[in-house]
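Anyone able to model this chain together with iron/sulfur cluster?
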Amino acid sequence: MKRANTLEQSIIDCTGCSRLLAHCKKVALEKKKKYSEWTYWGRPVPNFGSLDAQLIVVGLAPAAHGANRTGRMFTGDMSGVWLFRALHRAGFANQARSEEKGDGLELNNCLITVVCHCAPPDNKPTPKEIHTCEAFLKQTLELARRKKVILALGQIAWDAIWKEFVTQEKSPLKKIHFSHMQEVRLESGIVLLSSFHPSQQNTFTGRLSEQAFDEVFKRCRSLVDT
Ligand code: SF4
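re: yes, here you go
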C-alpha cells in the first residue's frame, strides 16, 4: 500500500511539464459551462486501481473536462463511458457507471494508467512531454508485479509499452506496428494487447464498435483467467 501511495502522490505533485500544468490549471479556471459548479481537479491525475492487478490498461492522457475535472482516470467523459461499460461486462469493474469519485465504482483486478498524466491541449502531448512522463509508466509497470496482460488503448500507448517492455526484457522480438487486436506474448509470459482508443474520433466514425471493444475485454478476461 505504501508503494502505491508514494507513486500516486509523486504523480500528483509532479511539476515536470510546465506547458501541461498551465493548461490543466487554465481549463480548471475557465471550465465548461455545464460544469460551472464543479471545482476541477486541474493537476496530474494518478493511476486508478490496484498495483496488484493482473490487467493493466494504458491510455493516452486525461481529458480536459473528464479526468482533469474529476481527478479519476477516464471518469466524466465519453471514452470513460465506453471503457467502464466494457470493463464491467468483462467483470473487471463492479459497475458501468462512472461519473465522479465517490460514485461507488471499483475496479476488480485491473489498473488504469496513462502515457501522460496531465491533460494536453488538443489531446496531443509532445514527444518531449511523453518522454518526461515515461518514468511514471515505467514505475507503474515495475510495481505491478502480478501483471499478466497489458492493454494499450491507441498507438501512442502501444509504442510506449513496446519501448518499455521489449527493451526492458531485451526481447529479440521485431516491432509489431499498431493495429486493433494485436497480441504479443513476451518471454516472461506477459501478453501485450492493443485496441483502438475509445475516443469519439473512433467511436463516432464507427472505427471502433461497442461489440469490437467488448471483444477486446473478453480476450483480456480469458488471458487473465488462464
Ligand atoms: S505529464 Fe507527467 S511528467 Fe509531465 S507534469 Fe504531468 S505528471 Fe509530470
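The CA atoms of residues 66 and 115 lie 16 Å apart.
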